[in-house]
Structures are given as structure tokens and as C-alpha cells.
Amino acid sequence: MKANQIVLPLEELPKNWYNIAPDLPEQLPPPKEPEGGPSRMEFLGETMIHECLKQEASLDRWIPIPEGIRELYIQAGRPRPLYRARRLENHLGLKKARLYYKREDLSPTGSHKVNTALAQAYFAAEEGKTTLVTETGAGQWGSALSYAARLMGLQCRVFWVRAVYEWKSDRRTFMKMLGATVHASPSKETEVGQQFLRKNPKHQGSLGIAVSEGLEKANLEEDSVYCLGSVLNHVLIQQSIIGLETIEQFKRVDDEPDLIVGCLGGGSNFGGIALPFAGEVLKGKRECSFLAAQSEAAPNLVKGEYRYDFGDVAEKTPLLKMYTLGHRTEMVPIRADGLRYHAAAPLISTLRNQGLVKAVAYPADERLVMEAARIFFQNEGWLIAPESSYAVRAGIDEALKAEKASQEKVICMNISGHGFLDIEAYRDKLNIE
Ligand SMILES: Cc1ncc(COP(=O)(O)O)c(C=O)c1O
Does CATH place domain 5-13+66-110+235-429 in 3.40.50.1100? Predict the structure, then answer.
């Protein structure tokens, strides 16, 4: 029997997360205070989960995953399978290139975001907090945190970029069914939100504004903490579960990837799959390349500058060294809304700066990427998130290039989410009646 699914038994669920920081050739540039105004570090210290802030600055290579979080991971369906994309290979006529994909779409809320949401909810509950506050763009992070909060018996408050809040009504219902309070951002709930609404009562919002609103609210409410779903080191550490499982899965089929591909907005799913492999590359234990697939609407790694910048519009965060388009940049709307962020995670940015990570950006009309999602659906049978279609597009393009050059190449794509709540995006972009 030719089984395309490569699974790990429950006992092999990793017991530690991986932190690449101590293995970097150069120390990661630390966060900085801006010149004027109140201390942003103190603000975050008061507003965020202490265990997460500890991980943020940690130089420990391995960070133990508490038993309670491993149980939550299993509840949420981990370990997740790796698939060999034989049907897609046949469709593309590949003889030399082999394609694999990691199944983060098999998630209760539809994406990889659950990996860090569960960890953050668990640590917040341990620290005696009662409410998790956050922002969301695509809605996947808000859904994941609503789910994690509910499993841990916590409240959840989500500030959701208004433009997306309005069209993703099914995802809104999803979060509300889990008991979350969901605000369209900018909202009247915060000073920052009110400022934007005064200037434009129909303001469509942005991720940067939603972050600012969430931070303000979490800081004002006793027993609330602010949770971020991407960019920061602790998020990428908690997402390393993806790559750690994938390394073991490749061993089971006696194969090795030459190229890891993932879509990238802030960098959490890409970092999750890539960093455990990148750590082995840096130690000389394997050879592998890394490609981040982006939108031309937010090509932070492709066109951004490597410099210190804020993580949000209201400048409440410390300055982080990142490839950035500028924290006030307006970005055109796209259906893969999760890819619309102005900067890439500091850990990914440093690897890009050192030449280990490469990036490609696809046109903002999204025709090419949505077509890749259709090909994937028709051949592999799984409907993926619009964001993940960027990874599949890049994976297919790289496989075809290798084939043309008669080069043997093993490519692993990360499927960051499913598309069951994104049918409208496909209907629109693929002109389906
Ligand atoms: C399904 C999916 N993939 C990818 C992303 C991009 O985020 P990140 O770069 O942090 O993985 C998002 C963000 O919302 C998402 O929902």
C-alpha cells in the first residue's frame, strides 16, 4: 500500500519547544525604547503574560512544554500529519521533484494559530488572569484565541479589523459561539479607536490600529492580558512544534526536504515550520533552503527595509528590528488578509538579513495564488486557506523550476489553514457563480 499520510504516534508529540536564538550566528538585535514617551517595555510588562515575556528574551535552546499544554495539543488533534503530494506531483508531471505538505489546516479553528493560543491561554490562567484581549486581521487568530480561552475557562475580547469583520460573518459567529466578545476596530471601546472614528466614522481599520486598541484595553482592565498571535519570539517558539514534528516525520519516510516553503504575514507559521530545520542548518547538520511566500500588498521581506520599527500604529510597542514597510503604511485589501502586516518577525528578519531565508511576492489581484488553491483542492482534495495558497503557489513554481532544470528536489509546504470559512473569497477571485 502506498500511504501518502505520514503520522506520528501520540507519544512522539514533542516535549520541548525549540528556540533558535542561541544558535544564531549573531545575537538577535534586542527590542529598544523609542526616544520620547513612556517606557514601552514597562507597558508590555504590565500588559502581557509573564511566562511569554520570559520566553521572549530566553537563550535556552529547548523550552519544556508543560504537560497541561501537551494535553491541550492532543485535544486539538496534534501531532498533525505530513502528506506526500503524489496526486499533485502526477498532475504537474513531476519526475524529479517531490512535494510534501504539513497539515496545520487540520485544526479545530482552521489554522496553526491554535498552537500558540493554547499555550498563551494556559500560561495566562496559571498567572491568575481571567480575560484574554487581542486583535485579529483575517479572523483566524481571534478564532484560535476564543477557542483556547474557552478550553481554559477564560473570557476573550477580540478587536477585529472592521473591513474583515464586516465580510467574514461566519467567522464572527464562530467566535461568538465560543463566547468571545468581538468588536469591529476602530471601536468606541478605546481612546485610540475613538480618535480614528472622529476623523472617519466609517474607518475600515487595520491590524496596527487593532493591536493599539487591544493593548490599551488590556492595560486598563485588571486581570486582563494582551495576547499576540505572530511576530514575537515567544509566538515563533511555541509554533516550533510544527517543524519539530515535521523533522521526525521525514525520518519515518527516509527522506529530507531541500526546500521549506510557507506563507508569511508576520512570520509565525513560516517560523514554526522553518526554524527547527534552520537551527540544524546553522549547526551544519543538514542542508536546506527556506522560501517565504508573500503578497505584493504587504511585501515586508521582499521590499521592506531592515531597521527598528514599531509593531503597531499607535506606537505602544517597543521598537523591534525587522524588515518593515513602515508601521503607518496603508496596504490594499486582499482576500488573504492574514498576510497584510507591515513587518516580519525579528527572528525571520535576521535570517533573511543573513541570507538563509528568501522571499517572493505574488500580485495583489491574487489570481495566481487562488488558481494554485484550486489545483491543490482538485488533486489533493483539501480546501486550504487563501493565505496558504501563497505557499502552495510558491511550492508548485519551485517544483516546476527544478523539473525544468532536471534537478532532484524535495519541497515541503506548510498548509497554515483550511478554507471552509473562506468560500466567498474563492467564489469572488475564481469567478465561480
Ligand atoms: C491561515 C493563515 N495563514 C497564515 C497567516 C499569516 O500569519 P503568520 O505569518 O503569522 O503565520 C494567517 C494570519 O492570520 C492565517 O490566518
Answer: yes
